[in-house]
Amino acid sequence: MIQPLDGSWAALVTPFSGGKVDQEALLRLVDLHLSAKTDGLVICGTTGESPTLAVDERSALMETVAGRLGGKINLMLGTGGNNTASSIELTRRAKDLGARAVLVVVPYYNKPTPAGLLAHFKAVAASTSLPVILYNVPGRTGVNMNAATTLELAKVSNIKGIKEASGNLDQVMGILQKAPDGFSVFSGEDSLNFPIMALGGRGTISVTANVVPDRMKAFNDACLAKQWEKAREIHFSILQLHREMFLEANPIPVKSALNLMGLIHDELRLPLVPALPATRAQLAKTLERMGIIKP
Length: 295
Fold this sequence. Notes:
Elements: E1 7-11, E2 16-17, E3 20-21, H1 23-36, E4 40-43, H2 55-69, E5 74-78, H3 84-94, E6 101-105, H4 114-126, E7 132-136, H5 138-141, H6 147-153, E8 159-164, H7 169-178, E9 184-187, H8 193-198, E10 203-206, H9 213-224, H10 228-244, H11 252-260, H12 277-289
Parallel strand pairs: 1-4, 1-10, 4-5, 5-6, 6-7, 7-8, 8-9, 9-10
Antiparallel strand pairs: 2-3
């Protein structure tokens, strides 16, 4: 039986230097999560700038991270896209690259109907024995996958959860109310982490976890132990940071924050560019207040 994938997952950034993946910075980030005992890392997701990563770069990223982790942290590979055949090809390779599961986003730009979404995700799931985590992020894809479609897909044996980033708590409740045992709902909207977990979510796939992995781990542990007062306190202590991770398009702010922390270069791939001075100044102010960087 496939076990649920619960807890604190970080949607890892892809650090660049001179246009190429910065291997040294990547290992620094991985070590940060090893120290924090993060439950899992998502490689080549939205935060990892997956649309601008070549297939060989995705493979190299997974191999590097898997080699450093040595099985101590679960790995999830983002294999989704708007071409079903390409998603299937990468999904088939995921296990050999060290993935414990795959994250498959709703196809973007094509604007598939519910019937098209069912066909797409069933085809991808049929291509692998790994657990498949659906990813609903309508602000990015132009299509919202409704609760009815998600629940229909939850009947597929190896579709084991969803990263819900619709921002619609009513929709999330609709999934949680009727989801089968073993189907995990992950919060993909950091500012809504606490309500989603309190309603029955089983983990977070977080942007903020790049910056404060220890606090996100403590938050998830508290939620899963039903220590709601502690979880609420942690959530409110980092809520401002959650919000500031989206002052500009993700991952612009999180990369700026990690640069302020001295961990990576403040470099993105076009068409994304570094944060505006006002965004960077706001992030610096918050990180100083939280004691993450010095004034």
